Amino acid sequence: MKLKDIQDEWDKDSEIDEIQVDESARQVHKKHAKYMRIMSDEGMNLITVEEKLTKLSATLEGYFRGQIDGRDINRPSFKLKIDTKEQVAKLIAADAEYQTLNYAGNNNKY
Asked: What ranges do the domains of the chain cover?
């Protein structure tokens, strides 16, 4: 769920009917549960994405260092052997699959 969607939901849910304040007060626990569930679900989604990022990063590091053959991970062969951490980090950050997954993870943070 996107942060904007949660904020839009909250805008609707946070309105209090001043004529029926007692009824609005009775609904507080339901709204609390709703947002706790959203927070929990999104937290689990974030953990999943971060685990995938960590695994992908390790795989890409092996690939860029020449330790993993591209055919083993459905990629073309990587002709260069990269030795420095800085070069590997730049190549990982530039990888389209990594960027997509990283965007999904950052989109889940709030």
From this structure: 3-10+22-108
